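writing this on my phone so excuse typos. first protein, seq and then structure
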Amino acid sequence: MSIQRRRSTLLALLLVTLWLTGCSQPPGQPGAAAGTPPARPEGNTLVVGKPGDPKGLDPADVTDAESSQITANLFDTLLRFKSGSAEVEPSLATGWKASPDGKTWTLKLRQGVKFHDGTPFNAKAVVDNFERQYVPNHPLRYPGATFSYWSDVWGGRITRTEAVDEHTLRFTLKEPIAPFLSNLAMPFFGIASPAALKKSGRDAFKQPVGTGPFKFVEWLPGDRLVIEANQDYWDTRPPLDRITFKPIPENTSRQLQLERGAVQLITGLQLENHPELSKNPAVRVADQPGLNLGYLSFNTQKKPLDDPKVRQALCLAVNRQQIVDELYHGLAKVANSPVPPGIWGRKELPYEYNPEKARELLKEAGHEGLKLEISYMSVPRTYFPEPKVIAEVLQAQWGEVGIQVEVKSREWSSYLEALGQGEHQVGLSGWIADNGDPDNFLYTLFDSGNVDTKRGGSNVCMYTNEEVHGLLVKAQALTDQAERTRLYEKAQELIHQDAPCLPMVYVSQLAASHPELEGFELHPTGTLQLRKARWKSK
């Protein structure tokens, strides 16, 4: 089939799919035409429209952006990322020092800070927070908690966390961890009130108590989640008094509610409406490069995807440039590495589009007439704003090389768990940087230690390669960036050869707001920072 004919087929598929799902609106419909800004909400408040509900509100026990974008405003971490950067700065810790061998870190903690429930923040509270994640019988470890990020980021490499005195904390490591400080700044290591954790027990995930700029008020799943300003915040009291988050799964509805003034900030902006929406004076659109990756995860432990030739054939049969050109409206780039631009240690290793070669590999592997299932998430993500459309485009492109594909949707609440436990064959997957270190992509997504079919691991490709594991673990223990880069480049070469995944896209981060709303930030790591959000003075 010619490129032009293939493009026509793809466009026809997209038009039919979008018409059926109601996910598209042509220029000139509400929201595309110029207008005047709607009235501000009553009082010093804000309503945020988001694609979905959080999975939970315990920062230590969530892995998704919908959850962490909220918990990042309720909980402080020991260190935090500077505005617009992956560089760290003081937060609950005011200073830190490593031992010469890199195996001991001593942190000085901020004094005079209190949790939202009035209990004091101190070194013992930090110890309780961290020990509950790696001590199996810890009294604050509630039933059902998985603490995935602790396992994926630290594993067994933190051997001890101790309170030297009330405001001095010491970590003892099994081995040096190069991105140690950056890891501590991840929102998943926010510090919760031990008293509140004890009181809430198994309900801690829906009754959050931190030290952050906002305090939790209420959560009615499917309807709203409300937070209010922490009047006693140690940094600067947030300008806004109250913020309400509303789950609005459908893209067009979310945009229309913004234009009508029902909400004043939305995430998960529909890419195809970006050009016209940017011209509308009733709306302000924010876009910036994001440290993110959208990729296809191949379950390498399920037949026939345990065969590298099959995985390589799947990679060769996807016209990623066509997908980017026709679905992302100039707001994405083809991904030629599992590490996004802006992070050091990245090596470009493109997969060519070659359907003829794909057919040859399938024939060599004895898998002509292959049948596969693609799983996709039910809510839009930064990297896959139209998951169903992407899945159906892949269905069409793989169909051109003789592969029969069934597409299957899963609810967001269970999607990540299902992929982490290896229930899929091919999954639409993505990662948004937790920090600016390549370890956060390569170790997290491809190390064999992060395969966990019971708990659900971050290596959703179920990929194991001992040489890759050795390179990634060695790189973690080094401080020489040039040597770490060499190791990461070698690891990327091996991963590319094994093809456990197909890197698809790097996508700009988008949000849209009332034009008089200022100060909110889409951080490169994907968090939504609202502690400085405010209404423009009249």
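second protein below, same order as before
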Amino acid sequence: MGNPKVYAVIDCRVSDPQQLKGGSLENQEMAGRFLAERQGWIVDKVFRKPHSATTTERDDIEEIIAYAKSRKKAGVVISKYIFKSIDRFTRMGAPEYWPLKDKLEREGIVLADTTGIIQPKRNSLEHLGGNHEYWWSMSSPSETAEMLAAHQGRQEVRDILTRLVGAEMKLVQEGYAVRRAPDGLKNSSVLVDGKKKIIREPSDRAHFLQKAFEMRANGGDDAKIVGLLNAMGYKTPLYHRWDRSDKERPKLIGKSGGNPLTIKQLQRMIQQTEYVAVIYEKWTRHRPVKAHWDGIVSVDVFNRANRGKIYIDPDSFAKAKAGDAVEVRHNYSPWGKVKRIKDNPEYPWKCILCHHCKSEVLASASVGKSGKKFPAYHCGGSKSGKRAHEYFRIAQDEFEKNVRAYLDSLKFDEGFLALLELHLLDEYRNREKEILVAASSIGHNVADLKTKLANKLDAFGHAKTQTVRDMLEAEIEQIEKDITKAEGERGRIEITEKSIRSFRHYAAHVMEHPSEILTEADNLFSRRLLLTLFFEEIPTYDQILNGTPKLTSLFKLSEEFSANKSQLVTLRGIEPRFTP
């Protein structure tokens, strides 16, 4: 009876798909076949795949075991597992090598390397005859060499990754890029001292990010920003999806991304410091450094867009060279240390200053013995601090009558409205190009959507099954909604000179009564800002009584103003806003 046939599999492995382009797999297969031929083994199958040997989740080993079990059912017993060397089998060292080896041996599969380190097991009692065999008597004379080779494989991985990752960390700390660029930027190679290094530069999608930063810096609402960008054709970046069932030749099966922008995505993008040329991550030890490229937005725009969530100190940024540290603060506001006065709509004029300490007056209502409330504005009486001065208290009615009487006496300086119209026209000319670019982008997007709609309608006409028709109908409905939204956004941003003149007449009608604007303001913060439109500095109560606040050049005191506090009117108002 002849020798039984011995069947083997050959495992050819590289660490990642990029290495498939070289000849490593072919060389490994050639060495494996040479070993099998020399030993008289039959090669049943060759496995060729990219798989990292530094992971403990070895689905490639499970694949070989499953194959061996399936072949055993067909009468073919796989008993040999051939690979190039132990460091190709695993790079996780002896702690990972022995469990994998034992797992295969329990399935009747013995390891064999083409370098010849692994030797067959021997019985340490065989010289005594009688075929005495125990678990402890069976061992391989190459166990120590195998352990050393496995350890060297792990050490090699450590050395390789230390060199690679260490070099990348050093580049990041010097202000260069090493990872995939965020949306709106792209990687570009530059030569520095004869070495290739990576920087960022604007991509063809940068205008979307610049528009988002600009609108948010100017106080734009996130929902409106998202609506405009989507109308301009913004879609999230596309990434390939692969079918890797064939390890050697993965197939492109689709793409991910290409979705409309959401508010959460916008808020994450706005906080990315790389758009202002600052690298801020764990590889810089969370120490922000200035990058070797120019940002697509300025530091001022970035700070205003983030509204204190992330604040880059302009002075440290201006002084820093590429690779130097930049000061970054979180949840920061220049007014963060200023005590904020609680807004109370029952006391709208708490923004007026105290004539003693120049702090905003306080307001409250005391309760008399009868239980009746006596509301008033007041300040002073504290034992320490700015308000440690003589206490004064003025009844709410009297205080507000005096403030309104003064505000009712204000009017625009002659010729202001004509100058306002000229100013708005100048602003329109300055932003006309920007408006046209946005409108053009929306126009292109609308055209693309209409083309897509026409294709869907054509496909709907040729659909034969109800299921397909239902799917196409849902897609057509969504495209029609997208077109309606985009056209609405285009109409909203297309400001014309006619629109500006209409606003001029509207301003003339409303701003003849400045007190109405201030009274109608939504909250204390808005009222503070509006006061700066009328006054060079917010006035004290005494200045209002005496008619001596420092007015801006837009207003002058009406000649009809007098000390007669009976000239009061019931307040209404509106807050004009215009963003050219």
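Residues 335-340, 562-580 have pLDDT under 50 and may be disordered. thats all i got for now
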